[in-house]
Design a protein that fits this description.
The protein is α+β, with helices and mostly antiparallel strands. Helix content is about 45%, strand content about 25%.
């Protein structure tokens, strides 16, 4: 005779596997956010980035309920109901009886929302964010419960009446208001319309747009991981325990079996954690190497761009100088005619002067010098941001390799820290700009 109901252990096992996967997944996401240094918008490079700034838009949306400018919103209208029904039941003596049961609840009668691409702005500039596919954490923008006498009751919702309506409606709206402070983690890529980056979804990559702070997001992931850990630890033993039910054939060693199952789950979680930690360290090492390559990209940009731009400005200055010299000579000739002195005819000089003006219609060397200065400043800022990003992520990597228990996992692959950059590391390929006198 089979005294064990198989549904209990099977369900407990499935739940244990699910909570194992969920706990490790949340732990991996938490580590990823902890290892990502916050970038400045001007220092955004291709790949996974973490940014903080305000939500901005040239043509913001207007929310349905609060009618506030925003870049994302969702709204819902719910109607309260109370219903009474008569049901038949059997009492403890086996007699059939009837009773009246009253239940209450809320039904959704209308909902909607909208989202648009927007800019995330910090103190270095804006970057375009395309939130499609992101996990969006919003803030409350509107919350109100009204009766039929309130104009809002029918003004912002269709005239639908649910069965047993009590005449109460609940209006709620959440969204991302304009200028709201945001925490964004996503993949940076090149825009198709202009030469600039944008933040968008990528297959398998984390994408978060949150009105909460970085610490709040990370704490939520850590709490979810530990909660799933506790549930997974007890799921399989409880499944076995309830599988026997109140059977008189329940083994005396059942508590021992449940303890062994819990220990087996802990061992499986430990193996999964080591695997997750190993992959996390390897991924962090690759991001450090990518950060180093980004410095080389910016140095190459400086090496290629600045000399060419300097030559263009130098040629522009030379052309303007020759033009100004020719104009000065013509002006001197035209003013040389004085009473009693011979000199050229001013009318004869006019055609040559017009030719010079047509040849050089708008020469402004000062604008060229200003543009060169802006490019020099921006290029050096990009290089400085790339250096800072590299040192930040390399520091995270070095710290991971030293703390316990990550230190033991790192030894399995013989992972070593990457060197930090010092000022002397950039004494290479300087770009000098020398103009002719």
């Amino acid at each position: 005779m089979n005294t064990l109901h198989p549904a209990g252990p099977v369900l407990g096992g499935l739940l244990a596997l699910f909570f194992l996967w969920f706990s490790l997944r949340q732990r991996r996401r938490h580590r990823l956010l902890h290892d990502l240094p916050t970038s400045k918008v001007r220092g955004v490079f291709i790949g996974l980035v973490e940014l903080k700034g305000s939500a901005e838009s040239e043509t913001p949306l207007r929310s349905h309920l609060a009618e506030k400018p925003c870049v994302h919103y969702t709204w819902r209208v719910e109607e309260h109901w109370r219903r009474t029904r008569t049901e038949t039941y059997t009492d403890s003596k086996g007699k059939r009886k009837t009773r009246t049961v009253t239940t209450t609840g809320w039904d959704t009668v209308a909902q909607g929302g909208d989202t648009q691409d927007f800019y995330l702005r910090d103190d270095t500039g804006p970057v375009l964010v395309r939130p499609a596919g992101a996990k969006i954490d919003t803030v409350g923008m509107f919350s109100r419960t009204v009766t039929r006498s309130d104009p809002l009751y029918h003004g912002k919702a269709p005239p639908v009446v649910v069965n047993g309506s009590t005449g109460q409606r609940r209006f709620t709206e959440r969204g991302i208001p304009l200028h709201a402070r945001l925490y964004v983690v996503g993949t940076s890529r090149e825009r198709r319309d202009i030469v600039a980056p944008e933040i968008a979804s990528a297959p398998g990559a984390e994408f978060i747009v949150s009105c909460r702070s970085e610490e709040s997001v990370k704490n939520g992931m850590a709490a979810g991981s530990w909660f799933a850990w506790v549930l997974g630890l007890v799921a399989l033993p409880l499944g076995l325990f309830f599988g026997y039910g109140d059977s008189p054939y329940r083994p005396a060693a059942l508590p021992l079996y449940c303890t062994l199952l819990a220990l087996a789950w802990l061992a499986a979680w430990a193996v999964g954690w080591v695997w997750m930690a190993h992959d996390s360290l390897v991924g962090l090492r690759e991001r450090v190497r990518q950060a180093w390559s980004l410095i080389d990209v910016q140095l190459k940009r400086r090496h290629d761009l600045i000399p060419a731009l300097a030559r263009s400005v130098e040629a522009l200055a030379s052309h303007e100088q020759s033009t100004q010299t020719a104009v000065a000579e013509l002006r001197a000739q035209s003013q040389a005619t004085r009473p009693g002195l011979a000199g050229p005819d001013p009318h004869a000089v006019a055609p040559l002067l017009r030719a010079v003006v047509e040849r050089y219609p708008n020469l402004r060397a000062d604008e060229g010098f200003a543009g060169l200065h802006r490019e020099l400043v921006e290029t050096e800022q990009r290089i400085a941001l790339a250096r800072a990003y590299y040192n930040d992520i390399a520091t995270h990597y070095a710290t991971r390799l030293e703390i316990i228990p990550d230190r033991f996992v790192a030894r399995l692959r013989k992972l070593v820290p990457e060197p930090l950059l010092a000022a002397t590391d950039f004494e290479r390929a300087p770009v000098t700009v020398n103009f002719a006198d």
